[in-house]
Amino acid sequence: MALTPPDADTHSTAPTTATSVTRHLFRTKSIERILADADHPRYRLKRTLSAWDLTALGIGAIIGTGIFVLIGTAIVGDAGRPGAGPGIVLSFILSGLTCVLAALCYAEFAAMIPVAGSAYTYSYATLGEFLAWITGWNLILEYGVACVAVAIGWSGYFNNLLKLAGLDLPDWATHAPGGPEGGIANFPAAIIVLLVTVILVIGIKESARATGIIVCLKLAIILFFIAVGAPAVSPENWSPFMPNGFTGVTAAAATVFFAYIGFDAVTTTAEEARNPQRDLPIGIMTSLGICTILYVTVAAVLTGLVPYSQIDIHAPVAEALRLAGYKWGAAVVAMGAVAGITSVLVVMMLGQIRVFFAISRDGLLGPWLSVVHPRFGTPHHATILTGIAVAIMAAFVPIGTAADMTNIGTFFAFTLVCIGLIVLRHTHPHLARPFKTPLMPWIPLLGVLSCLGLMWQLPALTWQRFVWWTIAGIIIYGLYGIRHSKLAEAQTTETGTSSSTNH
Fold this sequence. Notes:
single chain, mainly alpha, Amino acid/polyamine transporter I, two-stranded antiparallel sheet, 18 helices, 2 strands, 67% helix, amino acid transmembrane transporter activity, membrane, transmembrane helix, AA/rel_permease1
């Protein structure tokens, strides 16, 4: 079967009957075609990333806002949701186990289909175009909202550092409009997004190198916090261990899940890995394993330093050291937080851009988003669009529920990846698999149940926003994607060729 070139002219392929609609919605893209499209000169990305680069990108995305900011809310609780207290250790373990189950499924897919797009591409190969589009649409939600939240978090820590240095930016320049601060725009948040955008346009290798340096710095800062804080731990602060019972632990697990989601960003860079069949599973599992161990340790030390009810929800790690009498240590940790959150922003924006690139290459979004820069070898149009959109939102929109919106999009994507792996094992049992998920089908089944269980812990308002976002995605697919799908065009061409041959 001949493969239609991915840059062929696009025709309208709107379905005209109910049977045709069903066929269009659930048509799958073969792995051979996915790999051929990725290797086409028009869309080919530079393969420059090593296993170390991928691991650094994973750690760079995972360790940041979750451990430096959201852990405080998860411990203390917020309106309508109980906190975990010292039981936050169990929350991190529960979220980590859920991620491990999904990560094992991701690793098999990533080694077998080493192209950009992550869960979107895997769904296209197994569950059909419509569910792939919905997955990609929710990945846009995941990464887009996460980038905004991370940029705003970076701005807060950066402003604290300036205050320690004797500089104090006015509130109007550091807060979004509409709040009690009288803000005009959050300029530091917008500026850091635009600077990261420039780095990502120049090249993925340069981005990975910068991320690697930052990763080493923030790992040193976290180890510093553990080393300084551990001797000052008072075991009595761990009692009661679960002040709100296991309900508080599971609710907190749904919140701190944000702290883990970066590992799937590794798979969005699959087309830029030198040896993806070997290095992608290494990057995914190594980054997730290192971060889980660090999270559990930091959570134990943090809740042992001060009573959980006194933990600050805005800068919990740094403030815990200050309350324990280590003001100089608090300043060091604050600097590490700025570096850590910067690397998260780099990788989250990278993931958003690669999802745009993959969906556009398939014709479901405008083709200009998949144009590759002739010199830098990066999708510069998608990068610039992402940078401008995130910078505007970070400057003018206060995001109070960004973590929950990010989490629900991620849970949905993880669920479909786990289901898709079961489907692919059944439909294509003899495909070469450089990495095989063990204990099939139990690992992906447990992954589905774990994701749905934590998803259920999210607030009703988050579910409502998720439903409306999904409905918007369905409308866009109906008006544009289904008519411009390159897979539909290729299948139409092949059908016409087959008919001509038969006649």
